[in-house]
Design a protein that fits this description.
By secondary structure, the protein is an alpha+beta fold. The chain is built from 8 helices and 12 strands. The two termini are 13 Å apart.
């Protein structure tokens, strides 16, 4: 399935249109195709050379041109608020990010429901500039504020049987009108292997562009894993669980031939319906939504920091 001839970008039906069509025709759950509301067919790949990554040696920042705040907050994937990219910015005003608590469970010492501010208070707040790539072929460069996931994990004291960490998003139809459509098996769930979660790049974001996270970007707490496709960056987290077995990952559960559990950016492994070799960088330009396409880098350019996590793994099988 994954070795089939990929379509060109111009052949691809817009994801939001595809999902709406399936919903109308089937009247049932839609096949999962990205984190929420997907991109339109893309322009042809640019023939210009790839830019330098600009990523620092530790991977925590990049000198690349940042995406504008407006684009980063109005061109969003968050199906809980609708299937189109402008739905979250229009509908997420309903979300109440305070008060907020996170339920911690599983193979760890510190179990129970914890107020978010109390949970994060002991941890150092960090500023990082990461690029993120969505599986549909667009990417952004965003300045984030948050706490190290590894630092939080240490405070929760997982046991030796904790091989994975699982996350779950809020699922409240009163706050999230998109839940009324069977686009996915709600609530949204994600997970990481523990060594991935302990990598210094993994961030629990609480803000962006020097301010608190907007609702449409996953307020008040979301995961950022910059070497993986964007749908791995679960938003509005309400549950964290440590467990021995690989957790359920929503897109992998819904469409396993298209979305693997690991979800690492790999330009050599095409999505069954399009190539992953290039991307469209949405940056600070007047026509950023129609920017030239640039080559996609393995692990989204963070290979120096994370490639060792997957040593010996067949990354075509474990995609």
């Amino acid at each position: 399935m994954r070795d089939s001839q990929p379509l060109t970008e111009n052949d691809v039906t817009p994801e939001w249109a595809y999902r709406r069509r399936k919903l109308l025709m089937a009247g049932a759950a839609l096949p999962a195709l990205c984190l929420s509301g997907c991109g339109e067919a893309q322009p042809p790949a640019s023939t210009s050379p790839a830019p330098t990554t600009g990523i620092s040696a530790d991977g925590l920042t990049t000198t690349e041109v940042q995406t504008s705040f407006r684009d980063a907050t109005t061109y969003n994937n968050f199906y809980e608020f609708g299937l189109s990219k402008d739905d979250p910015a229009r509908e997420a005003w309903r979300l109440k990010p305070r008060p907020w608590s996170v339920e911690v469970s599983g193979e760890c010492e510190r179990i129970g429901r914890v107020d978010l501010d109390a949970l994060l208070k002991p941890l150092a707040v960090e500023e990082r500039i990461y690029r993120l790539r969505c599986v549909e072929g667009w990417s952004m460069v965003i300045p984030w504020r948050g706490v190290s996931l590894a630092a939080l994990i240490k405070t929760l004291k997982p046991g030796s049987r904790a091989k994975y960490i699982a996350f779950e998003t809020l699922a409240d139809p009163e706050q999230m009108p998109g839940l009324r459509e069977p686009a996915l098996d709600w609530p949204y769930r994600e997970g990481l292997r523990m060594d991935e979660a302990m990598n210094p790049l993994a961030l629990l974001a609480t803000g962006m562009y020097g301010r608190d996270l907007p609702n449409q970007n996953g307020a008040p707490l979301r995961l950022i894993v910059p070497w993986k496709y964007g749908f791995k960056s679960i938003k509005s987290i309400v549950r964290v669980r440590f467990q021995e077995k690989m957790p359920v990952s929503t897109w992998n559960q819904s469409q396993p031939e298209e979305y693997g559990f690991f979800s690492n950016v790999n330009p050599d492994v095409d999505h069954p319906r399009w190539s992953q070799k290039t991307e469209r960088r949405i940056a600070a330009s007047g026509n950023s939504l129609f920017a030239d396409r640039i080559p996609t880098l393995p692990f989204n350019g963070y290979g120096a920091q994370v490639a060792g996590l997957y040593s010996g793994m067949d990354l075509r099988r474990w995609f």
